[in-house]
From TrEMBL:
This is Mannosylglycerate hydrolase MGH1-like glycoside hydrolase domain-containing protein. It comes from the Bacteria. One of its GO terms (biological process) is oligosaccharide metabolic process. Residues 28-398 form the Mannosylglycerate hydrolase MGH1-like glycoside hydrolase domain. GO terms for molecular function: Glc3Man9GlcNAc2 oligosaccharide glucosidase activity. InterPro entries: 6-hairpin_glycosidase_sf (IPR008928), 6hp_glycosidase-like_sf (IPR012341), Glycoside_hydrolase_63 (IPR004888), MGH1-like_GH (IPR054491). Pfam families: MGH1-like_GH.
Length: 407
């Protein structure tokens, strides 16, 4: 599809703000962490220099603690809420105080395989290592990676968080004006109660001065998440390969891999027989079979029961993979992370399936993703039942995965 290839490249270059890429114009006017990693992979298909640059710009905003923030507010834009005035991290450029899924090392490996720029890889390597070390120091519970805010997982309003979010007191958040619903249909976005709680958790972190230890110990929301756990596990495997390329010792990384492999098994919900989110404060599972559950292969973990779940869910939707079980009580075909298909998650799931030899499922997911984009264009997400487009248009990560996989 030459025409769609051209459009995908035009979306990446059109969303380029000079060294960083916005997810889409209007709705998301800043640099987002994992979006940037996908943008970098997309650029690697036609402009390797720009691909490296995307990661370099991301890591230029790394905190001295090692954390790489979830948003970098390069140029303040009143079209997005909450902005730097709310986060108050007092940095230049301003950033948020939380992180996002660590896809960057996996992106760096992919870029390096296409462009053997050893010097640029060597400059990024210690930064990626420091970020992964930060996760190991501050975000593990029994070896599984925890999120301190739903925005960290990037699956903002997933039913995975409903139980833990119900315990967040948002009575003190006061008045505020959302901007997201001025850009897209409110029926496709989180609800007001969700935003109240997002802000309440944010205010807790802000009041600690963004102290990671205090947030882990006492934050109002702390959930062990399969998507973060699987993505970091995979990122560590890729980082260990890059250590080999650079002649660095990978012993520390191998230790994290073993710890995360054990941690992933603490997310096994024995009742439902799938990988699930676990509320660290209460010790309870979310009972949510979501797209995160299917990232086990991406992390190098094969699981027969998960394959059965995947076959079953693909048999119940026209377009896979739905972000939440279509027969689950909270399923909603259009509301963001509560049902819609996300091309970018499909890419991760299928990448893992193909590597594990599950070609039938990998091919189905790729074909569905391609069909959704051919039918609708490069939208943020899609209805898994009727194939309708949802969220923002001309979306960077949807264009990126088209160029490297779906197209
Ligand atoms: C969405 O999240 C942001 C907050 O981070 C938002 O809704 O305002 C999520 O889909 C997240 O995964 C993504 O990185 C971000 C930008 O595409 O948008």
């Amino acid at each position: 599809m030459r025409e769609l290839d051209d459009r995908a490249r035009a979306i990446l270059t059109g969303n380029d703000r000079g060294g960083y890429t916005v997810p889409t114009r209007g709705l998301y006017p800043y640099q987002w962490n994992w979006d940037s990693a996908f943008a970098a992979m997309g650029f690697s298909a036609f402009d390797p220099d720009r691909a490296w640059r995307e990661l370099e710009t991301l890591f230029a905003a790394q905190w001295e603690t090692g954390m790489v923030p979830h948003i970098i507010f390069h140029e303040v834009d009143p079209g997005y809420f909450p902005g730097p005035d709310v986060w108050q991290t007092h940095r230049q450029p301003p950033t948020t105080g939380i992180t996002q899924p660590p896809v960057a090392a996996t992106a760096a490996r992919r870029i390096y395989e296409r462009d053997h720029d050893r010097a640029r890889l060597a400059a990024l390597y210690p930064k990626m290592l420091a970020w992964h070390r930060w996760f190991a120091a501050h975000r593990l519970d029994r070896g599984a990676v925890c999120i301190a805010h739903p925005w960290e997982a990037g699956r903002d309003n997933a039913p995975d968080w409903d139980g833990a979010m119900a315990g967040v007191d948002s009575s003190g958040v006061g008045e505020y004006t959302r901007r997201d619903t001025a850009h897209v249909d409110a029926a496709m976005r989180p609800q007001k109660i969700d935003y109240d709680r997002y802000l309440s958790i944010l205010y807790f972190g802000r009041d600690t001065g963004w102290d990671a230890a205090e947030i882990a110990a006492n934050g109002p929301f702390f959930v062990a998440d399969p998507s973060m756990t699987f993505i970091l596990l995979r990122a560590n495997r890729d980082l260990a390969v890059l250590a080999g390329v650079l002649g660095e010792d990978s012993g520390e990384i191998e230790g994290w891999i073993a710890e995360l492999e054990a941690g992933a098994e603490t997310l096994w919900n024995a009742d439902g027989e799938y990988y699930d989110s676990r509320d660290v404060r209460t010790g309870t599972f979310a009972n949510s079979l979501s797209c995160a559950s299917y990232l086990c292969w991406y992390a190098g973990i094969d699981n027969r029961r998960m394959l059965e779940h995947l076959r079953s869910v693909l048999g119940r939707v026209r377009y896979g993979v739905p972000s939440y079980d279509p027969e689950g009580p909270e399923f909603n075909a259009l509301r963001y992370w509560r049902g819609p298909v996300w091309g970018v998650v499909n890419f991760l799931i299928a990448d893992g399936l193909a590597a594990a030899g599950h070609e039938v499922q990998a091919d189905r997911i790729r074909a569905d993703t391609r069909a959704l984009i051919e039918r609708n264009g490069f939208f943020e997400y899609f209805d898994p039942l009727e194939g309708r487009p949802a969220g923002g248009d001309n979306f960077t990560w949807t264009a990126a995965i088209w160029l490297i996989w779906a197209g």
